[in-house]
Amino acid sequence: MLKEEIYATIESGDIEKALDLLNNYAKTSDHEQLFEAAELYYELGHVEQAKHIINQLLELYPDEGSLFILAAEMMIDADEEDEAIEQLLEVREDDDSFLQAQLLLADLYQLQALDEVAEQKLLAAAKKAPEEMIITYALGEFYLDQGSYNKAIPYLKRALHADLGEVNVALGLAEAYSANGQFEDALHLYHQQEVTKMPPNTLFNFGFTAYQQGDYSVAIEQLEAVKALDADFTSVYAPLARAYEAENRLKESLEVVESGLRMDEFNDLLPLLAGKLLLKMSDPTGSEQYFRQAIALNPANVEALQALAALLRDQERAEELDELISHAKEYGETDGLLTWYHAYAKAELEHYKEALILYQEAYVFLHTDSDFLKEYSSFLLEEGQRDQAIRVLKEALIHDPAKQDIAELLDQLEANA
C-alpha cells in the first residue's frame, strides 16, 4: 500500500512528504520494489538516487532489459545520447524490453541524423513483432518525418484503428495524405477530428489542405482559427489571403495581408500578394508600391520582378522597365519573361541591336508562346528580316492554331512576298 500512498502524495503536490515515503520504500531487499523505487526517484527528479539503485540491480541482473531502458532514459534526459545508445544496445533480442529499446534507439539515431540506422532498427523491430501497432505507427511517423509520404501512408493506415493511448494516428495520416496530394482523403480524416482540440499547426494543415482542395470556406474557417489562437503564426497569412481572394473577397484578403505584414515585415511574399490584389482592385499605383516593397525585401523574387515589369510595360514606361531589369540582372536574376520585357524596353528606347539580341535570348525560353512570337516577328519585320519574321509566325500558328490575327498577318506577308 505504501507505493499507492506515494503516488497519491505526488498527485496531491506534497513532494516533500512523497520523498520521505519513498526513502522508506527504498529500504528493502525486494529487488522488484527497488526497481519501482528507482522509477519513482526518477519521476521526482532525484536522478542520482535512481542511478544508484539501477547500477546495484545491474550487478545482480546484467541481462535485464528493463534496467538498461531506465538507465538509458536517464541518460537521454541528461543529453548523454551516446551513453544511452550503449545501454540500449545491451538489450537482447529475446528480452521483453527489446521492442521498446529499438524505438528509443531509432529516436536517438534520428537525433544524430543517422536516419538509415534508425530506419533499420524500426524495420527489425517490425519484422520481429509485425502485429505490434506501436512499431507500425513508429515506422509511419518516421517516414512522415522524412517526407517519404508514400512509404508513411501504408503503415499509418494499418495503425489507424489501433489503441495507442493518446497518439492520434488519424492526424498523422491526414498530414501524409495532404503532403502526398491526396487532399480529399486528408480532409475526410480532418473532418472526423475534434477541431477545438487541435493545436495551431494541425489547424493550419487542415486549413491549407482545404485550400488545396478548393474548399475555401473551410480553409478560411480553420486558418482564421489559427490566427485567433496564435497571431505570430506567420505562415497562416498567405494561404488565408489566397482563400479570401478565391472567393472574390478582395478587401478581406488585403486586410489579412496587411495584418501579416505587421506581424512579419520581412516576408516578401505578402507585399507581392498585396500588389496583385490591388491590381484586381484597379489600384495600379498602390500595386506598384507593394511590388517594389517585395523586391526591396528580396531582389531575387522573380515573381515580383515579373509583376512589376508587366505593370511598367502596360503603362509604356520603357525607361523604368529597362532600369528595373538591368538592376535585376546585376543580382543574377532573370528568366525568359523578363528577357522578353527587356527586349521590348530596348526596342521602345530605340536600342535596336540590344533589343535583337534580347529577343533572340528570350526565344530560347518562349519559342512556344504565340504572343511572344507575334511581337518578335513584328520586330523582325521592322528590322527588315521578312523571311525570319514569316518563319516565326508559322511557328506561332503551330503552337496556337486558333490565333486568327496571326494567320491573317502571315497570309498578308506571304501574299506580298
Automatic annotation (TrEMBL):
KW Transport (keyword) present: no
Regions annotated as coiled coil: none
Presence of keyword Repeat: yes
InterPro entries: CellSynth/LPSAsmb/PSIAsmb, TPR-like_helical_dom_sf, TPR_rpt
Annotated keywords: Repeat, TPR repeat
Residue ranges of TPR repeats: 31-64, 133-166
Pfam families per the UniProt record, alphabetical: ARM_TT21, TPR_15, TPR_19
SMART domains per UniProt: TPR (SM00028)
Listed name of the protein: Tetratricopeptide (TPR) repeat protein
Taxonomic lineage from the root: Bacteria, Bacillati, Bacillota, Bacilli, Bacillales
